[in-house]
Specification:
alpha+beta, 5-stranded mixed sheet, 4-stranded antiparallel sheet, 2 helices, about 25% helix, elongated
């Protein structure tokens, strides 16, 4: 298995090779086409028109976007005992099973590394990964927490769970909630 760094290097090399091939094709087109902005200079090089230069730059930028995907959080939800907790609040019998959910969206295919942290200080998950196979398509991630008891401490309890995205770009999302145990 290759190291992540070497795979990125190979991918970068492929992109550079593709860009060089595009530029070579543009030079060939430039030498075949007679125009005021394209001509052969004394050194035998072809000067490429502004349009061709822009096309080359756009191809390079498009190739770079394939390498550096970004992720955003598209939405969040809270379920209590399987039912949507409107306004991120729950009133009912305890303990209650809470499920916190986030939708992750990327600019292209990528793998996201993330973890969860809770306000009670007693729980931080290990890093996990999820594959986002295509751009602009939400993939859900969830954290569960069984919480509360019929005691005065949980008569009204306010807390939060935070999603921490570690890669490909650092990002955080936090769901605040309140439970009222009866």
């Amino acid at each position: 298995m290759k190291a992540k760094g070497s795979a990125k290097m190979e991918y970068s090399h492929l992109i550079i090779s593709s860009v060089v091939r595009v530029i070579d094709h543009l030079r060939y087109i430039g030498s075949c086409r007679k125009s005021r902005t394209e001509f052969r200079s004394k050194g035998g090089n072809v000067k490429i028109s502004k349009t061709a230069s822009m096309v080359g730059m756009l191809l390079c930028l498009g190739s770079l976007s394939l390498v550096a995907q970004t992720v955003r959080i598209g939405g969040e939800s809270l379920r209590a005992n399987g039912e949507v907790a409107k306004g991120f609040q729950y009133t009912g019998s305890c303990p209650v099973n809470l499920q916190f959910g986030w939708g992750l969206i990327s600019t292209g295919p990528t793998t996201v590394t993330y973890r969860f942290v809770r306000n009670d200080g007693g729980h931080t998950t290990n890093s996990q990964s999820v594959n986002l196979p295509q751009a602009n398509r939400s993939v859900p991630v969830y954290e569960t927490w069984r919480l509360g008891a019929n005691t005065p401490q949980f008569a009204s309890y306010t807390g939060w769970v935070k999603l921490i995205i570690e890669s490909p770009n650092p990002l955080e999302g936090k769901i605040g909630f309140t439970i009222h145990c009866q």
